[in-house]
Each structure stands twice: as C-alpha cells, then as structure tokens.
Design brief:
Blueprint (H helix, E strand, L loop, with lengths): L17 E6 L6 H14 L4 E5 L6 H5 L16 H17 L3 E5 L6 H9 L1 H7 L3 E8 L3 H13 L6 E7 L14 H4 L2 H8 L3 E5 L5 H6 L4 H6 L11 H21 L7
C-alpha cells in the first residue's frame, strides 16, 4: 500500500509586536496619538499595553487603567531612577504577555532621552522580537520643531522606525485654509530627517474637540456612541466629525505606508 504524502503543517508566524515611544514637547498631541494607536490595536484584536509614565498628563492611564487588561502601573515619581525601574518592569510585562507597547513618558524633559540612550532600547527590543517605533510629535510653532529636531539629531532614539506627526490641531489661527506646516515642508532640517528615513504624517485637527471636552467626553466614547454623564447624547454633528477625523488620520497613516509600524 502506497503511503499518501503528508503536507507539512504551515509555519506559524510570531505575533506582530511593536513598541512605540512618544517623543515631543508636552501638549504636542503625543498622548492622544498613542491612545489612538492603542485603540486601533485593540479594535483589531492585537495584544497591546498602554504604558503611561507621563507625570503631568495621565491620559493613557485614564483610558486604559492599570487594573485593566491593557494598562500597566504608573511610576511613583518622574525621577530618572524610578523611571528606569518602571521601564524595565513594563518591558518585562510586555514580553511576558507577547504584547505590543505604547510608551508615554511625557514631553519637555530629558528623562526619556537618557533612558533610551542608556538602555540601548532599540537593540534590546529587537533582540526580544519587538520592533521599535519612535513617534515624534510637533505643532506648527518653530519652537516645537526645534525641540523635536534636537532630540532626533542627538541620536538618543536610533536603530528604529521613525515617524514625525504634524499636529494641525495646535494651529493658532481662526482660519483653517492655510497650511500651518508650509514653512516646515521647505525647511532643510525636515528634508534631512526624511532622507534618513523619517516619515512625516499629518495629524488632522479635530475642530470640535473643545465641545467634547466641555461634555467631559473622550473621542473613543463619542465614536462608540456612549452617553454623557447626564444620560444625554453628544451632539450628532460632533460625533460625525470625530468619526471622520479618526478615519482621516488612519488614511494618512495608510497612505504613507507605516501602519505596520504601529502596535
């Protein structure tokens, strides 16, 4: 009797894992950006942890609390040694759970730079099957970009994929017709970053955000159709604008071909 040939089992690919590290000044939209990336990962059924080490803006831990499936404990303070211990424990937790990671240490200080440089972060992540993404956030003000460029030039964050998010929501003007980043697109420093592989992506403005905040609602609850604290619903126009805003941001990311760089 002739034995039938057997088909070898298909090789199972390891789970896609990313660690994305927010870089930029405080109030540059970095925490919101990371929250969106975590939201998309959860919606797609991918394992992800939201690591909130921002001492000034605990947005991530409010959306993804430490006791929940996608949260981690916050550091006790913002000192370098405490942040180092927190990062080590957070990375270990992500590796143990085969999860991607969104890291927010806030903006405006050098703790995250020192941590990334001292720990050889990218090498560590790659050695453990996690691809690093460095997410720079800037507003249209020249000081915002000066800050981002200095950090990028310092090479504290190297050997990973890098994205520069241009946050239109920080444009201080009553009109939206002008391109707030026109000056930057002509700047030789941006061309230098692009030549090195940094991908610039527009982070659109959500012009109704102040009304959502006035209702004490976050964008994800609005998209999900959750009621406000008093039981009433958010204005349907605000919901429509929020959904379109998220879609536009995702379109920009897909168009630039960096969706795989996110958790």
């Amino acid at each position: 009797m002739t034995e039938k040939p057997t088909t070898p089992p298909a090789k199972k690919e390891p789970p896609r894992r990313r660690a994305i590290w927010r870089i930029g000044r405080g109030r540059s939209g970095g925490s919101l950006g990371l929250a969106i990336f975590v939201y998309w990962a959860i919606q797609a059924g991918r394992d992800v942890l939201a690591a909130d080490g921002d001492p000034n803006n605990p947005m991530l831990s409010k959306l993804y609390p430490p006791e929940g499936k996608h949260g981690v404990q916050r550091p006790d303070n913002a000192e370098l040694e405490e942040s180092k211990l927190w990062l080590a424990n957070t990375l270990a937790q992500a590796l143990e759970h085969n999860a991607s990671l969104a890291i927010d240490l806030g903006g405006g200080d050098r703790v995250s730079e020192e941590l990334a440089s001292e720990s050889h972060l990218a090498d560590f992540l790659k050695a453990n099957g996690v691809n690093p993404t460095f997410a720079y956030f800037t507003g249209p003000e020249r000081d915002d970009f000066d800050h981002v460029y200095r950090i990028w030039k310092s090479a504290a964050f190297k050997d990973g994929d890098s994205i520069l998010f241009l946050n239109e929501g920080l444009f201080r003007s009553s009109t939206r017709s002008a391109d707030p980043f026109l000056w930057l697109k002509r700047d030789a420093r941006l061309k230098e970053m692009e030549a090195a592989g940094v991908r610039p992506i527009v982070f659109p403005a959500l012009t109704c955000m102040k009304y959502l905040e006035g209702d004490d609602m976050n964008v994800f609850d609005v998209v999900a159709g959750k009621p406000k604290a008093d039981g009433t619903m958010v204005n349907p126009l605000w919901k429509h604008m929020t959904v379109k805003w998220l879609e536009a941001f995702q379109h920009n990311i897909n168009e630039e071909g960096v969706a795989e760089w996110l958790p």
